[in-house]
Description:
37% of the residues lie in helices and 25% in strands. By secondary structure, the protein is α+β, with helices and mostly antiparallel strands. Helix 2 (35-45) packs antiparallel against helix 3. The radius of gyration is 16 Å and the shape is globular.
Amino acid sequence: xxxxxxxxxxxxxxxxxxxxxxxxxxEITAIQxxxxxxxxxxxxETIALFSEKARSEGIVLPILLEIHELNKxxxxxxxxxxxxxxxxxxxxxxxxxILSSGKQSFEIETPLFCLIEAEDHDIEKNIPQCIxxxxxxxxxxxxxxxxxxxxxxxxxxGTEWQFLKLAGKTCFIxxxxxxxxxxxxxxGVLQNIIDIQTTNFLQ
Length: 203
């Protein structure tokens, strides 16, 4: 898939996107996980999650479903959706998870506000792929007449989460990473992103 073919050189030269390291969140309100989520993640620890797909299903999806349940009708989660934004720029291919506005439907609804890429080990190596997906989301939104100043992204191994933010032609990379062993803070970060983004298009 084309998104996975991007590296830093291509995101800079072909997409014109530079990177900058910053601190995203200075204050996070922690959210205590439900027993259901804790039990699900504990069961996931008992099996070998070697592949990206296994980590997506065993760790990432339960966390996203938890935050989705806390925000009924505020956003939707699409898993394994194809996002073909601009074939001429190779902004096409499958995304692990796409978060968008509104109620869940069978087709992706705009605006798309966050892309989450689940990888099995190397976060740094896969950041350019997520940058390309965020740019794809921006292009896709604009084709649908929806304009967001910021698109969030994340690359995660399931246990470690690195957040990104695309604004214009700069991708801001959070200097801090978040970990599953501090689940309340991680859930708080995800909620913060939802609060920021949904206020942009939901009244």
